[in-house]
Design goal:
Blueprint (H helix, E strand, L loop, with lengths): L11 H14 L5 E4 L9 H14 L5 E6 L1 H5 L3 H9 L2 E9 L3 H6 L6 H13 L3 E8 L7 H13 L5 E6 L4 H10 L8 H14 L6 E5 L8 E5 L3 H14 L13
Parallel strand pairs: 1-2, 2-3, 3-4, 4-5, 5-6
Antiparallel strand pairs: 6-7
């Protein structure tokens, strides 16, 4: 997503000017997302200054969110996370991708399963909501079982608020880099991906209520429900689609990124 960008910290005054302009155009805004891809890596005082300015600029603001990784959650102290939460940062978008250590290593995620669990629980314990994603198919055929088993383990040992599954897609220009690290990878077809979806749902036994969605543009089948209440229904919906076959899947012409 950031092929044309390099990481840099923008000056606060520059961002304040953009906030001023947006607050004039959208004064009733209640939700704000802080872009780009690694905003939580900013120094805590920098983020607090932004949160204070946003609250002053948008009187009805009730949700500020950003992307988060295990690394930048673990790099902050519990006190820092508490301060951020108390000043309005209340939702983190978090890409788990996989819970399997071998897969995480092959996709160069930079963390292992235990660090993912630790970071998710660290954020949850200060009150932050988490919207987590798991990528179906990212383990390929070789690691499919392990990928699903260990990804479900992460959800069962944490308390995420929202959970989504996406299907793996590789752009042509990304394939060479991907296969360089994951030389024994082989792509799953839609039926195999839905078998993963079914197994994942079957293995989920969350501690808390989770709002589940599988409605990304990449998905062959859209699903929605609350876990654990709707677990049986969701499994049945996936099985019904598998029984019907390709005609029950969203046509690939209507899928993309």
């Amino acid at each position: 997503m950031y092929k044309s960008k390099s990481y840099q910290v923008r000056e606060l005054e520059e961002v304040y000017k953009e906030i001023d302009a947006l607050s004039c155009s959208y004064p009733e805004s209640r939700k704000i997302f802080l872009a780009d891809g690694d905003a939580l890596s900013l120094e805590t005082e920098h983020l607090l200054s932004l949160l204070h300015y946003l609250k002053k600029s948008f009187p009805k603001l009730n949700r500020v969110s950003l992307y988060a990784s295990a690394q930048n959650i673990l790099n902050k102290s519990t006190l820092e996370l508490e301060k951020l939460f108390l000043n309005g940062l209340n939702l983190l978008y978090y890409g788990i991708e996989s819970g399997n250590n071998e897969v995480l290593k092959k996709i160069t995620k930079g963390v292992n399963q235990s660090q993912i669990i630790e970071s998710l629980n660290k954020a949850s314990e200060v009150g932050m909501k988490i919207s987590a994603t798991v990528i179906l198919g990212i383990g390929g055929r070789k690691y499919s079982q392990e990928h699903i088993r260990d990804s479900a383990k992460i959800i069962n040992e944490t308390t995420v608020t929202y959970l989504s599954t996406l299907q793996l897609g590789l752009e042509e220009e990304s394939k060479e880099k991907f296969y360089k690290h994951f030389s024994d990878f082989s792509m799953l077809d839609d039926s195999q991906l839905l078998e993963e979806q079914k197994r994942f749902l079957e293995l989920l036994n969350p501690k808390n209520r989770i709002i589940f969605r599988s409605n990304h543009a990449s998905n062959a089948l859209h699903l929605a429900g609350n876990l654990p209440r709707d677990k049986h229904r969701l499994v049945q919906e996936v099985q019904a689609a598998l029984d019907i076959g390709v005609s029950a899947f969203i046509p690939k012409a209507f899928r993309g990124f």
